[in-house]
Design goal:
The protein is globular, with a radius of gyration of 17 Å. By secondary structure, the chain is α+β, with helices and mostly antiparallel strands. The longest helix is centred in the first third of the chain and has 23 residues, at 8-30. It has four helices and 15 strands. Bound molecules: magnesium ion (2 copies). The site of one magnesium ion (MG) has 4 residues, from β5.
Amino acid sequence: MAFTIKSPEEIAVLREGGRRLAHVVAKVARNTVPGATTVELNALSEKLILEMGDQPSFLGYTPRGAKRPFPAAICISINDEVVHGIPNENARVIEEGDIIGLDCGITHKGLITDHAITVIAGTGDAKAEQLVRKTKEALMAGIRAAIGGAKVGDIGAAVEAVGKKHGYGIVFELGGHGVGHRVHEEPYIPNMGVQGEGITLIPGLVIAIEPMFTEGTPRVKLMPDGYTFVTKDGSRAAHFEHTIAITEGEPEILTVEI
Ligand code: MG
Ligand code: MG
């Protein structure tokens, strides 16, 4: 399996990049209020990243299978949009109660971290609040399972258990990934799995874990823009993501503000 193990020096760079990225995402989240536009939020994220001397990793990046580079610094995905919403081409005004996924990546000293949170603009309904809370809980459960020597399947099983317990659609067509030198590296980290199966999590492996839950079907479809994934049944979705470093014991979350 072709994945890279990061050195302690590289992980130190990723730690600083992750800290900066968490700061950017938190600041954009504070500005994700009713009346704000996705165009403004994209401009804000790009400005914050460039001000720190870093690069927005998603801008100009062409993932495998895509026909053109991604045109923005951040993905903004609202309500039935699961991930990869384009904020600047598909300009939208944020409305009260919208469920908004903010997914961003930065390149700091040549190394990439990837981080997403979901917020509710203004006041959301109780179901939206729970969807967001439980998707975040699933991310943390996945991270807790990612101890050195465990298997990739342990992560998926932990994420899946939280989704199943609450009856959510667990998006399985998309998932987490190795990250660092490129936005997407091996190995793939599914959001479903069987404990004890899959490759072994080796210290120095850096991965993004990113559960996506929906209020309905787990199935997604790609919109004609080539990037935005929406739920097939129009149900609402939430998405959380951290970049973590595998260690001998508990993993280190890199995408946190210190
Ligand atoms: Mg991401
Ligand atoms: Mg990712």
